[in-house]
## 1
Amino acid sequence: MYRSYETNPTSISSLYKQYLNKKAIPQKDYVTYRKWLRYYLDFCHKYQNNQHNQLNKDNIKYFMAKLKEKEQNTQRNQAFHAISLYYESEPANSLEDTTFKNKNINLSTKNENFKSINTNWVPAFDKLKNEITLRHYSPKTLRSYSGWVSRFQDYARSKDTKLLTSNDVKDYVTYLAVKRKVSASSQNQAFNALLFFFRHVLKNEFGDMKDIPRAKRKPYIPVVLSKDEVETMISNLTSPYDLVVKLLYGCGLRLFECLNLRVGCFNFDAVY
């Protein structure tokens, strides 16, 4: 109930933190989860009438709808999960609320279905880390793969990993190319990360992925000028700029090194 939280917020917060640890929620997310719980309890207190001031299913629907009105769609999944953990942590399950036991309930005015979403991916991330470590991949690879899997998790709305299919990957990689307009290298990196995740963590194969739209590679633009291009450029420069460019090109100097040159920097007695 809200009033218990209101009269003793420290103890409730402490118990909730312990439960987050028990459910293997990353410590970096503790603050965010506790924030969502506080927002939800405040919402129950401020916006619901007294007879509905319990933490019941109706309040959750209203809260999720409120987030949607504020266009906080990306945060709704995490908010729902944070509240669900609070319900689970209630002593002796004193609230006879099946909101989070039955994933088929509707949580918005548009009957948005939360079935098979908002599941806990922490074990999958732990296994991903172990699989990469066992293969002695670099820490950079671990960060990259974990990042793409995390973004895929957001896109899939934390769908149960047992229900993930190659179609989910196709949709996400297509989304990256069509909607996000990522580079070809980024799309390939995402694909390789998810391939590793499916093959070694979920023990599942992709299947045929030939029909996925591919991001277009940008035309290669050389970063080094040819000798003829340098000569053409110098011939169109006037003094003293042509001398500066000649020194940069002939001696391999940086611009500030060239501009700081003084007469004493040259050995005029040397014969070449």
Note: Residues 42 and 241 are 68 Å apart (CA to CA).
## 2
Amino acid sequence: MTEPHHPPDDPREWLNRARSNLRLAAQHEPGIYREELCFNAHQAAEKAIKGVFISLRADFPYTHDLRELLDLLGRRLDVPEHVRQAQELTPFASRLRYPGHGKAATEEQYRQALAIADAVIGWAAQVIAKEGQ
């Protein structure tokens, strides 16, 4: 079942998109590179974090650097350490998703990327609910 679409300024839409990316990341099937799956895990975390910015009615830069986003968000609210681990996913949004720019993602990196993205989405959903969205 497809989630209903919300306006782009609604943090629920960003969470829906984050969850969609996480579902794509979980599609560990033959022929799909783990780097692509980790990229979707990164996208899930990024969209969830940006959903928090929207719920706070705060601007955010259009960047894929999760450290930058989390540092900026940390000026507005407490960001738990397990959420800050998302910064480890940034290389999957830049150099590692292209051939020849790093080593192939390991199964352990893939599993960790899924766990991190899932934790970020869970945290973001709580923050957004608390903000009344």
Note: The radius of gyration is 14 Å.
## 3
Amino acid sequence: MGNRNRWIFEAGGGWCGIAWTERGIAGLSLPSARREDATAGLDRSAADAVDSEPDRRALELAGLVGRFLSGEDVDFSAVELDLSGAPPFRRRILEVVRSIPRGQVRTYGQVAVQAGSPRAARAVGGCMAGNPVPLVVPCHRVVGSDGRLVGFSAPGGIASKKRLLAMESGGPDCRNFVTGG
């Protein structure tokens, strides 16, 4: 997997973190009230990362995150990811979720079908809970079979998921979006 680096920065009224390798972005933490929480948010995907000056990709992603959190319609599709640590099934799920257009949602079951494993809705939920790059892989766009907002493990839980979806559908902007604060 190579060396992992991380950078903690301010955005959206809080602290975010980005982890990366020579292959691409390996982790992103949503804005938190405390710097320590942003670092902890990366620990799931990049516990071995070392503090570093940001490279070009980290700076570009930080800019996109900042614009997104100020309410802009941002396209994360060009962000280079390093998902090499994920098993093939998880990578398929993450790519399917990454393709969900802004302002739209898919159910866990729909994602499972699209990934070629129609009976794997629960496994999709597990994959979303461990999503290392929220926003880039927009796990907030995955909902329960009845359309309810369920299963958002990021700080702030369902309230954060609801706020992100509202932003994307023309709701209030997110200039002060801070989780767990």
Note: Strands lie at 5-11, 14-20, 25-32, 50-51, 106-107, 142-143.
